[in-house]
Design a protein that fits this description.
alpha+beta, eight-stranded mixed β-sheet, Nuclear Transport Factor 2, Chain: A, Type 1 dockerin domain
Length: 568
């Protein structure tokens, strides 16, 4: 039957495919128990198989294994995550497992999360049992397998208290009768177990039940407790996580954070922070004589930094004592001791992947003294705990800039762009730009005083460039006269290095002109272009574009400060 399903996936995928989709997310398939109350032997247990962090899911197959001495499979099948009309096989059950599979015939699921399948079991014995997900395969709309990680669920049995044990001491005596009697005149049972027969009222019926079970010790019934009891993640398929590298990347991020903090550079701090206005993005600290303050959302966080930097300053160091990373390498928690000028304390920080880069989601500088602002990971797959003999602090350490080497590296990036543009090679151009920067920008002005509007965001940049290649009056035009860059301004931005550059060449190379660039260097992949704009000589000064003051000045990050000018 599994062979049939695989063949079915392939047959519906035999159709023209015109786009290539990249998958940066790893989907999570996990067991969820909708019921929150204990389940007695003989009662039924409902189980949902849910998916999260998903994209372009058009089919799935999976096996749920269980302990047949504890659970008996009753029934189940495909749920409502896939589009209506999905083709689903009838579940194939054996003594200790259930196989489920379904595929959409009308395209991928629209949601990123939902319920793939539902199952029902009967509890047949008093014992613990893990419901384990095995052989999970997710298919996209092109019939390709997608990366997935799984998380199993577990039921455990607990013995209930004796009937009539109101105070929870595992025996029924005069103390319990007294508690029921004292609750007769109270609207709400105090304690709640005083309502022995659970009819919502404490009255003589409850006292009779206690009296009938006087001197009882131990439990009268046994029930199963269900819930998402932590189970180590089972499988991460299609992705290989280098936790040592992820750990180091988090340390590098905090070193960059420490530099930006010490420099009181709000823009650099924004670069290391997760973008967005969610309340999950925040800083928490004590301010003004110990008053607790929490700033939620990216704008509020930036505004808070701007305000506090007007009052305090000094070098920032963070001595990292703990790092935990989840099984998908997407979320982390960090603890450490910080020193900022004459301020000292402990912090807890939550981090999250933004694409391929770690970003700070939240920092609690109170170390949880005002509640758990940052929660620990439930099931970390990687944990670093401080070895006192090998303490590593995130400290501002900036080696001197080798200006000659950086100029040569920047020139190489621009030469690669120059060649790729003139070869109409959009893929190669993408290798020279920071394509995941939402503020990446491109524009040009050429003969005829006709500006191409500045394009922001990589997809818009691609459209603008392709438009030049095929447009009337621009088709066939090259970038020239040459690819030589002349004027460089280079400086640190946090732990990264940024540069502004001018080359005296431009689009439509038969005209003299200028090209202005803003680039940034990151340890992982070197220099990349973030902004580029050019103008022919006869248009310099038009539309606000002239030497040292590019058209991108208002919207961009181009700088020409004298202190950062690199000598010829």
């Amino acid at each position: 039957m599994k062979r049939f399903l695989t063949f079915f996936f392939l047959t519906i995928a035999i159709c023209p495919v015109f786009t290539t989709v990249g998958y940066s997310e790893v989907s999570l398939v996990h067991v969820v128990f909708p019921q929150k109350t204990p389940i007695a032997v003989g009662e039924r247990l409902n189980v949902d198989i849910q998916i999260a962090d998903a994209q372009d899911i058009a089919g799935y197959e999976l096996t749920v294994s269980f302990d047949p001495t504890v659970l008996r499979y009753i029934g189940g099948g495909n749920a409502d995550y896939l589009p209506e009309g999905a083709f689903a096989l009838s579940p194939i059950a054996s003594n200790d497992s259930v196989y489920i599979a379904a595929t959409s015939v009308v395209g991928a699921a629209a949601a990123s999360a939902g319920t793939l399948a539902t199952l029902t079991f009967e509890v047949v014995a008093i014992s613990a049992s893990t419901l384990q997900l095995k052989d999970v395969i997710l298919s996209n709309s092109a019939g390709m397998s997608l990366p997935v990680t799984t998380r199993s669920g577990r039921i455990e049995t607990i013995q209930s208290l004796p009937i009539g044990d109101v105070n929870g001491d595992r025996s029924v005596n005069i103390l319990d009768l007294t508690l029921v009697a004292s609750s007769l005149t109270v609207g709400t049972p105090t304690p709640p177990r005083a309502d022995v027969n659970e009819d919502g009222t404490v009255n003589i019926l409850d006292m009779v039940l206690v009296a009938q079970h006087l001197d009882a010790i131990g439990g009268n019934t046994v029930k199963s407790k269900v819930g998402v009891i932590p189970v180590n993640p089972d499988v991460t398929a299609g992705i290989d996580i280098d936790f040592a590298a992820e750990d180091q990347a988090i340390r590098d991020l905090y070193a960059e954070y420490a530099l930006a903090h010490g420099d009181q550079d709000v823009d650099a701090l924004t670069d290391v922070w997760l973008p967005g206005e969610s309340k999950d993005i925040f800083t928490a600290w004590t301010f003004w004589a110990g008053t607790f303050e929490k700033n939620e959302g990216g704008k509020a966080v930036s505004k808070a930094w701007d305000g506090i930097f007007r009052l305090r300053g000094g070098k920032m160091e963070v001595d990292i004592t703990y790092i935990a990373i989840d099984s998908r390498g997407k979320e982390a928690v960090l603890r450490g001791a910080y020193t900022w000028g004459n301020q000292k304390g402990d912090l807890i920080s939550a981090l999250k992947k933004d694409g391929t880069d770690w970003k700070i989601r939240a920092i609690d500088y109170t170390d949880g003294r005002f509640g758990r602002q940052v929660k620990d990971l439930l099931e970390p797959a990687h944990i670093f705990e401080e070895n006192p003999e090998n303490r590593q602090a995130a400290v501002a350490t900036r080696p001197p800039i080798d200006f000659a080497a950086e100029k040569a590296a920047i020139q190489a990036v621009y030469s690669a762009f120059y060649k790729a543009f003139n070869d109409n090679d959009l893929k190669a151009i993408g290798e020279t730009f920071r394509t995941n920067d939402g503020k990446v920008a491109f524009g040009t002005i050429f003969a005829g005083n006709e500006p191409v509007p500045i394009a922001f965001g990589w997809r818009n940049v691609e459209i603008a460039i392709e438009g030049l290649w095929i447009g009337i009056g621009t088709k066939g035009a090259k970038w020239g006269r040459d690819d030589v860059l002349k004027d460089f301004w280079i400086r640190y931005k946090g732990s990264k290095i940024e540069a502004s550059v001018i080359g005296y060449n431009c689009y439509k190379g038969s005209f003299p002109g200028e090209t202005h660039l803003y680039l940034m260097k990151e340890a992982k992949d070197g220099w990349k272009i973030h902004e580029l704009d050019s103008s022919t000589e006869n248009n310099l000064g038009i539309f606000g574009f002239h030497k040292g003051k590019p058209r991108l000045k208002e919207a961009g990050r181009f700088f020409t400060t004298d202190a950062d000018k690199v000598p010829e």
